[in-house]
């Protein structure tokens, strides 16, 4: 089996396509969360703290040999931590919902099997009639 055919088989598997869709949706979700944090959540917090723009908060360390300022961008870090917490919470809620759905599906299966195993009274009577007719021939 050539490497091209192996790659084609690998690439068209259902799991690979599901993963690709998940990565694309995750990237889009990350963009939305970053906008939520930077444009919706942080401005009111900065306003409440006296007009502080968190993205510009940093600790100046000095200048590099080119004369550019070197800073530790604490405000950007805070924005990224908040973004991470929102994404982590959303993923947690998604996993929790999937686990709950799986548990509900598992609870239904034994009831369906038990119901299918026990024939109804009419089915029993019909089987007896069929058996009686077959034995007379």
Short structural description:
With 137 residues, this protein is mainly α.
| Biggest β-sheet: strands ordered side by side in the sheet | 1-2
Main sheet summary:
2 strands, antiparallel
- Strand tally: 2
Name the helicity range.
over 70%
- Gross morphology: elongated
Average pLDDT score: 83
Distance between the termini: 60 Å
Q: What radius of gyration results from the CA coordinates?
A: 31 Å
Order of helices and strands: HHEEHH
Strand content: 5-15%
SS class: mainly alpha
- Extract low-pLDDT stretches: none
What count of helical segments does DSSP give? Answer: 4
What report would you give on this structure?
- This protein has 137 residues and is mostly helical.
- Helices cover 76% and strands 7% of the residues.
- It contains 4 helices and 2 strands, in the order H-H-E-E-H-H.
- It has helices at 3-11, 14-48, 74-117, 121-136, and strands spanning 59-63, 69-72.
- Strands 1-2 form a two-stranded antiparallel ribbon.
- Strand 1 and strand 2 (69-72) form a beta hairpin.
- Helix 2 (14-48) packs across helix 3.
- 1% of the residues are buried.
- The model has no long low-confidence stretch (mean pLDDT 83).
